[in-house]
Amino acid sequence: VNQWANVIRWELRTRMFLRTTEFLWQEGHTAHATHDEAVEEALRMLDVYAEVAEDVMAMPVIKGVKTRAEKFAGALRSYSIEAMMQNGLALQAGTSHDLGQNFGKAFNVQFQSKEGQLDTVWQTSWGVSTRLIGGLIMSHSDDKGLVLPPKLAPVKAVLVPIYRKDDEKGPVLEAAHRIAKEIGAKVDGREGTSPGAKFFHWERRGVPLVLELGPRDLASNNIVLKRRDTGTKEILPQSEIAARIPAVLDQMQKDLYQAAKDRLQSNTLLANSLSEVESILREVTAEKGCGKFVMAHIKDDPACDARLKEFKATIRNIPLTDQYDGPGKCIITGEPVDRRVVVAKAY
Amino acid sequence: MAESPITPRTRDFAAWYQDVVLQGDMAEPAEIVKGCMVIKANGYAVWELLQRELDTRFKATNHQNMYFPLLIPKSFLEKEAEHVEGFSPELAVVTIAGGKELEELTSSARLRKQSSAISSPSGSKAGATFRCW
Question: pTM for the complete prediction?
Answer without folding.
Answer: 0.91
